[in-house]
Amino acid sequence: MRYWLFKSEPATWGWSDQLAKGDAGEEWDGVRNYQARNFMREMALGDRGFFYHSQKSRAIVGIVEVCAEAHPDSTTDDDRWDCVDIRAIAPVPNPVTLDQIKSDPELSDMVLVKNSRLSVQPVTAEEWQRICTLGGV
DNA sequence: GCCAACGTTGGC
DNA sequence: GCCAACGTTGGC
Fold first, then answer.
1. What are the tens digits of pLDDT across the range A111-135?
2. Which of A37, A53, A86, A120 is the most core-located residue (most Cβ within 10 A)?
3. Per-residue pLDDT tens for A71-90?
4. CATH number at residue A33
5. DSSP per position, A28-84
6. Number of structural domains, chain A?
7. Nearest CA to the C1' of C10 belongs to which residue?
8. Quick one: average pLDDT of A32-50?
């Protein structure tokens, strides 16, 4: 199993919106960036991901699971863009903030730190474990 | 609200 | 195929 991180502006699509979709999950649509799309194409059913709030709150707030592999993005007719479906698995009891991540030596190589603009990104098993520990998961 | 970083577009 | 212009993202 691989690990990922999904970034969203809470004002547009937040953790509470994701939770409301329940086990059915929802398309992670709207991505118009090749790198992010390519990562989604690599995802497999059952892969886990962090749900990150960008902008104002800047923290990892939840854990999601890939519940459908890459398929055409229903929000566009442009066949370049694919997306996966994800569903909420569990909240992170103590949200892990960007500040915490930046100040933790074990997390200093995270894509989140190095390329803050990438909206879908891979997370290593070590980073996953560390953040779960910090978050009280 | 500003601005730096980055990706994409389109003219040449 | 290069590169300038432009738009968007997201941290501060």
1. 999 999 999 999 999 999 999 999 9
2. A86
3. 999 988 888 899 999 999 99
4. 3.10.590.10
5. ------HHHHHHHHH--TT-EEEEEE-TTS-EEEEEEEEEEEEEE-TT-S-TT-EEE
6. 1
7. A55
8. 95
Distance A118 CA to B5 C1' (A): 11
Q: Which bases on strand B have an atom closer than 7 Å to a protein beta carbon?
A: 5-8
Domain hosting A69: range is: 3-135
Strand C nucleotides below 7 A of a protein CB? 8-12
* Mean local confidence (pLDDT), A92-108: 95
CA distances from A47 to A10, A11, A22, A132 (A): 22, 26, 17, 15
Query: What is the three-class DSSP state of A121?
Result: strand
What would the two tokens of residue A1 be? 């199993």
Average pLDDT, chain A: 95
Provide the pLDDT confidence category of residue A13 given band limits of 50, 70 and 90. very high
Helix or strand run (H / E) with residue A105 = none
